[in-house]
Design brief:
184 residues, alpha+beta, Rieske Iron-sulfur Protein, 4-stranded antiparallel beta sheet, 3-stranded antiparallel beta sheet, 3 helices, 10 strands
Length: 184
């Protein structure tokens, strides 16, 4: 009798090198590699997108009718406090008087508000030294005082004393009406 097995393919090798099986393994390995590269690359690509909270607050509108004379309202804008101050005539006069002082970051009061709207002062409420939030009414110039390191700002938000190198930042803003302002 012969050692031939019925139904056996005489062209196949005993090691199991079936071409269909080999192709499947190559395709599966390639798909797994592509998936792994995609899984590793996605966090890198996704972190380049802007954060959702900054998109929502890129610009805001604020109703000034809520702020009475002599009052300040703090609004969150781009993750930072935004000071909206309705200045009194005394505060405006003090700010104008400070135009001629020896200022570290020279800027007139007129350059820090919109023409004809001197009573409205809008500032980013972070100290230019290390980013602390100053409080209003402290210090010898009647404006803002940063309790962390002692920076003193006047009623126009200009640095007058302490370690801060620059004035409080005036953001880009425009008046939409007499009682509505758009910041950003």
């Amino acid at each position: 009798m012969s050692d031939t097995v019925v139904g056996a393919n005489p062209d196949s090798h005993a090691s199991g090198d079936d071409p269909n099986r080999r192709d499947f393994i190559h395709i599966a390995a390639g798909a797994a590699a592509v998936g792994a590269v995609g899984a590793l690359a996605w966090p890198l690509i996704d972190q380049m997108n802007p954060a959702g909270d900054t998109l929502a607050l890129a610009s805001i509108e604020f109703d000034l009718g809520k702020v009475v004379e002599g009052q300040q309202v703090v609004v969150k804008w781009r993750g930072k406090p935004l000071f909206v101050r309705h200045r009194t005539a005394k505060e405006i006069a003090e700010a104008i008087q400070g135009d001629h002082a020896d200022l570290r970051d020279p800027q007139t009061d007129e350059a820090r508000h919109k023409p004809g709207k001197a009573e409205w002062l809008i500032l980013v409420g972070t100290c230019t030294h290390l980013g602390c939030v100053p409080t209003f009414g402290g210090g010898e110039y009647g404006g803002w005082f940063c309790p962390c390191h002692g920076s003193v700002y006047d009623t126009s938000g200009r640095i007058r004393k302490g370690p801060a190198p620059k004035n409080l930042l005036v953001p880009d803003y425009s008046f939409l009406s007499d009682t509505k302002v758009k910041v950003g």
